[in-house]
Amino acid sequence: MCVPGCQETMHQALQAGLSRRRFFKGAAAASFAAVAVSEPAPAAPRRFSRAVDLTHTMSPDFPTFFGVPGVELEKKFDIKKDGFNLNWWRIIEHAGTHLDAPIHFSETGITADKIAADTLVVPLAVIDVAAKAARNPDYELTREDLTAWERRHGRLPASACVAMHAGWARHVGDAAKFTGKDAAGVFHFPGFSAEATEWLLRRRSVAGLAVDTLSLDHGPSKDFKTHRLWLPSGRWGLENVANLDQVPAVGGTLVVGLAKVKDATGGPARLIALV
Predict the structure, then answer these.
(1) How far apart are the first and last CA of the chain?
(2) Bridge pairing between strands 236-239 and 121-128
(3) What b/e string do you get for 208-235 counting C-beta neighbours within 10 Å, with b at 16 or more?
(4) pTM of the shown model
(5) Residues 6+ apart with CB under 8 A from 35
C-alpha cells in the first residue's frame, strides 16, 4: 500500500535513475567513438620489405639518340604572378626511362594507352651481364645467359619482365660513355641478342624486356632485330632503367607507371620494384 504522494515520488526516482543510466551509457558510447576516431586504423599488411626506384630523373641533359633534349620545360604560370606554378612540356616519347609500346615497331600493334594494367605489374627477373659488358661494350645478352640464370634461380617466372643489368646506369652522367657514340656516329652499348629474344618468345611466357641502356638492341645495331621481333608480338619493352643492381635476381615485383596518352607509341615511365 502506498501513502498519498508516494506514487509521484517513486515515478520521479525511477525517471531519475533511468536518466542516469542513459547518461552513463551515452557517455561511454561517446568515449568509445572518440577513441575509435583518434586511433588510426591498423595498416594493411605489406607483402614487400622495400620499394626500389628504377627510374632515372628526366631532364634536358639526359642522353638521347636524337641529338636534341628528350624533354624541355617552359614555365607558363608563376606562383608570385599567377597564384600557381605550371610548366608546358615538349617531350620525346622515347627518352629517359621509358616504355616502348607494341605500335613502336609495328603497323597494327597496340598503343601505350591500350596496354592492359594487369600486364604492367609483373614478376621481375634480372640477368646480370655487367662483367661481360665491362669487357665488351657491344655485348649482346645470349640464350646461354638466360639458361645459366635458370640453372641458378629456376625457370623464369610466368608473365615476368626480363631485365638486362649491364651496369650501364652508372654512366648516365657521362653522355659520351652512356651512348658510346664514336667518330663515325656508331653507338656502343649492350642489348638483347635476337637469338635470346626469339628463345624467350618461343620457349617462355614473358610480358616485357628491360635494359639499363638506350635500346633493347645493342648500340651498333642497324636492323633493330630485337625490337622487330619483340614489340610486334604484343609485348612491351623498357629502356634506360636505373638501379637494377639494387634488386635481387628473382623475387621482386615490377610496377610500371605509364602515362595513358591516346595513340602514344610509348612514353616516360616511373618504374618501382617491390622486393
Answers:
(1) 81
(2) unpaired
(3) bbbbbbbbbbbbebeebbbbebbbbeeb
(4) 0.84
(5) none
Q: How far is CA 216 from CA 1, 129, 226, in A?
A: 101, 14, 7
> Which one-letter DSSP state was computed for residue 55?
B
What digits encode the pLDDT tens for the residues 177-229? 999 999 999 999 999 999 999 999 999 999 999 999 999 999 999 999 999 99
On whether the CB atoms of residues 261 and 112 are closer than 8 A, the answer is yes
Which CATH code is given to the segment(s) 51-66+93-274?
3.50.30.50
DSSP at 2: -
Burial, 191: exposed, middle or buried (Cβ in 10 Å; 0-12, 13-18, 19+)? buried
Note the pLDDT tens digit of each residue in 106-130. Answer: 999 999 999 999 999 999 999 999 9
Cell numbers representing residue 185 in the block: 656516329
Q: DSSP string of 204-219?
A: S-EEEEEESSS-SS-T
Distance CA 228, CA 108 (A): 13
